[in-house]
Amino acid sequence: MNTFASIERLGEFSFKRVTYYSVRLEGKDNTEFEDFLERHEHNDDIRTELDELFWWLEEIGTRIGARTDYFRPERRAHALPPPSRKAAHGAAQASAAVLHAH
């Protein structure tokens, strides 16, 4: 069975240097990123990691841009946090979001 998907712009994550997108699977109400947030937004055990994820999304989107050294390889994609920058501002794994550099 084939699963079809579309790529959708994440409106609240559109910045000067990067626009983020997420996959919406056919028949689903939410994108994969929205599902990730719904599953984890009220989990106090990872609140710090989520805050750091949002910090990185905005920092990369407004100031840094989509430089490859800010993403670690993860199977056939790339994810946050950057390999050597975990201590300052790490992030929870959220490879459900993709981005487009301006």
From the structure above, extract its key features.
102 residues; two-stranded antiparallel sheet; globular; 5 strands; alpha+beta
In short:
30% of the residues lie in helices and 28% in strands. The protein has 102 residues and is an alpha+beta fold.
Q: Could you characterize what this model shows?
A:
- The chain is an alpha+beta fold.
- It has one domain (5-101).
- It has 3 helices and 5 strands; from the N terminus they run ββααββαβ.
- A hairpin with a 3-residue loop joins β1 (5-14) and β2 (18-25).
Q: What topology does this entry show?
A:
Blueprint: E1 5-14, E2 18-25, H1 32-40, H2 47-64, E3 72-74, E4 77-79, H3 86-89, E5 97-101
Antiparallel strand pairs: 1-2, 2-5, 3-4
Overall 3D geometry?
A: globular
Number of helices: 3
How far the N terminus sits from the C terminus, by CA atoms, comes to 36 Å
Number of spatially distinct domains = 1
Structural class: alpha+beta
How many individual β-strands? 5
Identify low-pLDDT runs: 86-96
> From N to C, what is the helix and strand string?
EEHHEEHE
For the biggest sheet, the summary is: 3 strands, antiparallel
Strand content: 25-35%
Please state the oligomeric state of the protein chains shown: single chain
Please state how the strands of the largest beta sheet are arranged side by side. 1-2-5
The share of residues in helices is 25-40%
